[in-house]
Amino acid sequence: MYLKRIVRGIGLSFLFILLGSLFGYLFRRTLAVQLSVADYGLFFSMIAFFSFFMLFIDFGLEQAATKYIVEFRLKKQWDHIRSLAASLLKFQLLCSFIFFLLFFFLSDFLAISYFHASRAATLLPLLSLLFFIAPLVTFVATLLLGFQRTTWYTALDFFRMLFLFLFILLFFSYQPDILGPVLAYAFVNLILFFFYLPYLSSFFPSLFTRS
Predict the structure, then answer these.
(1) Helix or strand or coil: residue 189?
(2) How far apart are CA 203 and CA 211, in angstroms?
(3) For the chain, which terminus, N or C, has the lower number of CB atoms within 10 Å?
Protein backbone atom coordinates (compact mmCIF):
# COMPACT_ATOMS: atom_id res chain seq x y z
CA MET A 1 0.00 0.00 0.00
CA TYR A 2 2.79 2.39 0.97
CA LEU A 3 4.78 1.44 -2.15
CA LYS A 4 1.68 2.06 -4.27
CA ARG A 5 1.35 5.58 -2.84
CA ILE A 6 5.01 6.29 -3.57
CA VAL A 7 4.71 5.11 -7.17
CA ARG A 8 1.50 7.14 -7.66
CA GLY A 9 3.18 10.23 -6.18
CA ILE A 10 6.20 9.87 -8.45
CA GLY A 11 3.96 9.33 -11.46
CA LEU A 12 1.86 12.42 -10.71
CA SER A 13 4.96 14.53 -10.09
CA PHE A 14 6.46 13.43 -13.39
CA LEU A 15 3.17 14.19 -15.15
CA PHE A 16 3.04 17.68 -13.63
CA ILE A 17 6.62 18.34 -14.73
CA LEU A 18 5.82 17.26 -18.29
CA LEU A 19 2.64 19.31 -18.44
CA GLY A 20 4.38 22.33 -16.90
CA SER A 21 7.05 22.13 -19.60
CA LEU A 22 4.38 21.78 -22.28
CA PHE A 23 2.42 24.83 -21.16
CA GLY A 24 5.67 26.75 -20.73
CA TYR A 25 6.51 26.00 -24.35
CA LEU A 26 2.99 26.96 -25.51
CA PHE A 27 3.21 30.19 -23.52
CA ARG A 28 6.52 31.20 -25.12
CA ARG A 29 5.37 30.12 -28.59
CA THR A 30 2.20 32.18 -28.28
CA LEU A 31 4.24 35.24 -27.31
CA ALA A 32 6.60 34.66 -30.24
CA VAL A 33 3.68 34.52 -32.66
CA GLN A 34 1.62 37.38 -31.27
CA LEU A 35 4.28 39.91 -30.23
CA SER A 36 6.75 41.82 -32.33
CA VAL A 37 10.41 40.87 -32.06
CA ALA A 38 11.10 44.06 -30.08
CA ASP A 39 8.28 43.41 -27.56
CA TYR A 40 9.22 39.74 -27.21
CA GLY A 41 12.82 40.66 -26.45
CA LEU A 42 11.79 43.45 -24.07
CA PHE A 43 9.46 41.19 -22.10
CA PHE A 44 11.98 38.42 -21.51
CA SER A 45 14.77 40.88 -20.78
CA MET A 46 12.61 42.37 -18.00
CA ILE A 47 11.81 38.88 -16.67
CA ALA A 48 15.51 37.95 -16.64
CA PHE A 49 16.37 41.22 -14.89
CA PHE A 50 13.81 40.71 -12.12
CA SER A 51 14.63 37.00 -11.76
CA PHE A 52 18.18 37.86 -10.73
CA PHE A 53 17.01 40.08 -7.87
CA MET A 54 14.50 37.46 -6.72
CA LEU A 55 17.51 35.59 -5.33
CA PHE A 56 17.88 38.29 -2.67
CA ILE A 57 14.37 37.67 -1.36
CA ASP A 58 14.77 33.93 -0.81
CA PHE A 59 18.15 33.85 1.04
CA GLY A 60 17.72 30.05 1.27
CA LEU A 61 15.02 30.56 3.91
CA GLU A 62 12.55 28.22 2.21
CA GLN A 63 14.89 25.22 2.59
CA ALA A 64 15.83 26.13 6.16
CA ALA A 65 12.22 26.67 7.24
CA THR A 66 11.19 23.36 5.64
CA LYS A 67 13.67 21.50 7.85
CA TYR A 68 12.24 23.02 11.03
CA ILE A 69 8.64 22.49 9.95
CA VAL A 70 9.34 18.77 9.51
CA GLU A 71 10.82 18.63 13.03
CA PHE A 72 7.94 20.58 14.56
CA ARG A 73 5.39 18.43 12.74
CA LEU A 74 6.88 15.23 14.14
CA LYS A 75 6.60 16.74 17.62
CA LYS A 76 3.05 18.01 16.84
CA GLN A 77 4.11 21.57 17.69
CA TRP A 78 1.56 23.22 15.41
CA ASP A 79 1.92 26.65 17.02
CA HIS A 80 5.64 26.60 16.26
CA ILE A 81 4.94 25.80 12.61
CA ARG A 82 2.41 28.61 12.33
CA SER A 83 4.76 31.07 14.03
CA LEU A 84 7.71 30.07 11.83
CA ALA A 85 5.69 30.29 8.60
CA ALA A 86 4.25 33.68 9.61
CA SER A 87 7.70 35.05 10.51
CA LEU A 88 9.11 33.87 7.18
CA LEU A 89 6.22 35.45 5.30
CA LYS A 90 6.53 38.78 7.12
CA PHE A 91 10.30 38.99 6.62
CA GLN A 92 10.12 38.17 2.92
CA LEU A 93 7.20 40.54 2.37
CA LEU A 94 9.26 43.32 3.93
CA CYS A 95 12.26 42.54 1.70
CA SER A 96 10.10 42.22 -1.40
CA PHE A 97 8.29 45.48 -0.62
CA ILE A 98 11.64 47.29 -0.50
CA PHE A 99 12.57 45.90 -3.93
CA PHE A 100 9.11 46.76 -5.23
CA LEU A 101 9.50 50.40 -4.16
CA LEU A 102 13.04 50.55 -5.52
CA PHE A 103 12.12 49.37 -9.01
CA PHE A 104 8.81 51.24 -9.02
CA PHE A 105 10.53 54.59 -8.52
CA LEU A 106 13.49 53.72 -10.75
CA SER A 107 11.30 52.53 -13.64
CA ASP A 108 11.86 55.65 -15.79
CA PHE A 109 15.61 55.50 -15.29
CA LEU A 110 15.82 51.75 -16.01
CA ALA A 111 13.60 52.03 -19.07
CA ILE A 112 15.87 54.57 -20.74
CA SER A 113 19.32 53.70 -19.38
CA TYR A 114 19.14 49.91 -19.13
CA PHE A 115 16.38 48.57 -21.39
CA HIS A 116 16.63 51.40 -23.95
CA ALA A 117 12.85 51.29 -24.46
CA SER A 118 10.66 54.16 -23.33
CA ARG A 119 7.61 51.89 -23.12
CA ALA A 120 9.28 49.88 -20.38
CA ALA A 121 8.65 52.83 -18.05
CA THR A 122 4.95 51.91 -17.92
CA LEU A 123 5.55 48.15 -17.78
CA LEU A 124 8.21 47.97 -15.07
CA PRO A 125 5.97 49.28 -12.24
CA LEU A 126 3.43 46.57 -13.06
CA LEU A 127 6.01 43.82 -13.35
CA SER A 128 7.65 44.91 -10.11
CA LEU A 129 4.54 43.60 -8.34
CA LEU A 130 6.27 40.25 -8.80
CA PHE A 131 8.47 41.19 -5.85
CA PHE A 132 5.65 42.12 -3.52
CA ILE A 133 3.58 39.00 -4.27
CA ALA A 134 6.35 36.36 -4.65
CA PRO A 135 6.64 35.59 -0.88
CA LEU A 136 3.05 34.34 -0.90
CA VAL A 137 4.07 31.43 -3.13
CA THR A 138 7.23 30.85 -1.07
CA PHE A 139 4.92 30.57 1.95
CA VAL A 140 2.81 27.97 0.12
CA ALA A 141 5.86 26.03 -1.12
CA THR A 142 7.44 25.93 2.36
CA LEU A 143 4.32 24.44 3.94
CA LEU A 144 3.90 21.93 1.12
CA LEU A 145 7.47 20.68 1.53
CA GLY A 146 7.32 20.79 5.33
CA PHE A 147 4.20 18.64 5.34
CA GLN A 148 5.71 16.41 2.63
CA ARG A 149 3.09 17.26 0.02
CA THR A 150 5.71 16.91 -2.70
CA THR A 151 3.27 16.12 -5.50
CA TRP A 152 1.42 19.39 -5.03
CA TYR A 153 4.71 21.21 -4.60
CA THR A 154 5.76 19.89 -8.01
CA ALA A 155 2.38 20.98 -9.38
CA LEU A 156 3.10 24.62 -8.49
CA ASP A 157 5.04 25.22 -11.69
CA PHE A 158 2.43 23.40 -13.76
CA PHE A 159 -0.40 25.58 -12.43
CA ARG A 160 1.76 28.70 -12.87
CA MET A 161 2.37 27.98 -16.55
CA LEU A 162 -1.25 26.90 -17.08
CA PHE A 163 -2.57 30.18 -15.64
CA LEU A 164 -0.07 32.21 -17.64
CA PHE A 165 -1.00 30.44 -20.87
CA LEU A 166 -4.77 30.72 -20.33
CA PHE A 167 -4.49 34.38 -19.37
CA ILE A 168 -2.58 35.43 -22.47
CA LEU A 169 -4.95 33.43 -24.70
CA LEU A 170 -7.83 35.41 -23.23
CA PHE A 171 -5.96 38.72 -23.38
CA PHE A 172 -4.64 38.22 -26.91
CA SER A 173 -8.14 37.41 -28.14
CA TYR A 174 -8.89 41.08 -27.49
CA GLN A 175 -5.50 42.73 -28.02
CA PRO A 176 -2.13 41.10 -28.90
CA ASP A 177 0.06 43.37 -26.81
CA ILE A 178 3.00 43.03 -24.41
CA LEU A 179 0.76 44.27 -21.59
CA GLY A 180 -0.90 40.84 -21.52
CA PRO A 181 2.09 38.74 -20.40
CA VAL A 182 3.22 41.56 -18.07
CA LEU A 183 -0.13 41.50 -16.25
CA ALA A 184 -0.08 37.69 -16.22
CA TYR A 185 3.36 37.56 -14.58
CA ALA A 186 2.49 40.37 -12.18
CA PHE A 187 -0.52 38.57 -10.69
CA VAL A 188 0.06 34.86 -11.27
CA ASN A 189 1.59 34.37 -7.81
CA LEU A 190 -1.46 35.94 -6.17
CA ILE A 191 -3.71 33.57 -8.13
CA LEU A 192 -1.59 30.59 -7.08
CA PHE A 193 -1.75 31.63 -3.43
CA PHE A 194 -5.55 31.77 -3.33
CA PHE A 195 -5.80 28.63 -5.47
CA TYR A 196 -3.71 26.65 -2.95
CA LEU A 197 -5.15 28.22 0.20
CA PRO A 198 -8.07 25.76 0.58
CA TYR A 199 -5.66 22.85 0.15
CA LEU A 200 -3.29 24.26 2.80
CA SER A 201 -6.20 24.59 5.20
CA SER A 202 -7.24 20.98 4.52
CA PHE A 203 -4.04 19.46 5.96
CA PHE A 204 -3.18 22.29 8.36
CA PRO A 205 -6.58 23.49 9.66
CA SER A 206 -5.04 25.60 12.44
CA LEU A 207 -3.06 27.65 9.90
CA PHE A 208 -4.91 30.88 10.63
CA THR A 209 -6.42 30.08 14.05
CA ARG A 210 -4.84 29.50 17.40
CA SER A 211 -5.58 26.18 19.03
Answers:
(1) helix
(2) 15
(3) N
